[in-house]
Amino acid sequence: MIHLHYWPTPNGHKITLFLEETGLPYTVHPVNIGKGEQFAPDFLKIAPNNRMPAIVDDEPADGGEPISIFESGAILLYLAEKTGRFLGPDLRTRVEQTQWLMWQMGGLGPMLGQNHHFNRYAPEKIPYAIERYVKETNRLYGVLDRRLEGRPFIAGDYSIADMAAYPWVVPHEAQGQDLADFPNVRRWFEAIRTRPATERAYALGEQVNASGGEMTEEARRNLFGQTAKRD
């Protein structure tokens, strides 16, 4: 059994996409990041960076003690290796998929996250910051669009690289992007959006966070106001 510590953010959706595709048994442990549950001592034992998602696998392949994993990219790699699914069977395909997974982890996610922050959550609208990250988002969409030219998915068949990138493209309108400007991304996006596993994963997210994630002052402090020494 996989124990998934989860909240329906782009990084959280990556893992439910994989689990729903494979049918691997899992149970969800909600981590309400707006209420600061990511700082609970028990959660920090498995996710020392106080970020979700994180998983605990009760049945690792080596038959030993449960394994805990944090960081969404590491979780996807672990689950792909565990199941033998959504990671290419040959060296060259795996290299392609892994480097695009790292592209998402190091570029697409962090830059689009800053776009979300300054566009949607910052108490003060700073034109320079908004322009900076909207433009960088646009550049990264262009990179993805060129990569998808003549390809149905990012690297070979549907893989963890696609699962990592897709949730960050879901809020494209809020990021100031029009998919009509990126026809290859739009085709790819629609192909993933209509997969039954994708529909199940996002329905689960709506169930877990039925309130819709109102940005209260408490949530703002928990999400954006922490230092090394938490109050």
TrEMBL record:
Belongs to the GST superfamily. It comes from Sphingomonas desiccabilis. It comes from the Bacteria. It holds the Pfam family GST_N. This is Thiol:disulfide oxidoreductase.
